[in-house]
Amino acid sequence: MSRVGRNPVQIPKGVEVKLAGRMVMAKSKLGERQYELREHVEVTIEDDKLVVKPRGTDKTTRTVWGTTRSQLHGLIKGLTEGFRIDLEIIGVGYRAAVEKNNLALQLGYSHDVRFPIPTGITIKCEKPTLISITGADKQLVGLVAAKIRGYRKPEPYKGKGIRYAGEAVREKEGKKK
Length: 177
Known about the structure:
Helices cover 22% and strands 39% of the residues.
């Protein structure tokens, strides 16, 4: 039995949830999101709570049960609070700026790197070396952060590059004479 799947998902005020067949549609002031259910589970709304129930007892059904509950919880949380990932840029001359619908990155290459900002994502640069990525979809926020970090990963000798805020990069010792 799934311990996660047993817990119902609380629907806060300001979020409207509808069930239509295999689709769960949620709407709030931050936007709209939908999630397609797998055939192993069924979802009902009881007393402002989403209750996820399995349709069997096999291993696949039990794993999908907990996963579906976690996905629905993330969907509701994203529509109420949103998700945020901060990136730090470390290196001499490395900086970032938001220009219309693009994120312009200067990362020591011969050219500026331009990253198109996808819909549903907000990117802010409070400082030239700090990037803040926010959105309602946890997966999309993480994907955008990983793509931006991938342009210049932190290198192990001087620590230059783009890293998640608070990420510890183990630095190696350089060559000795």
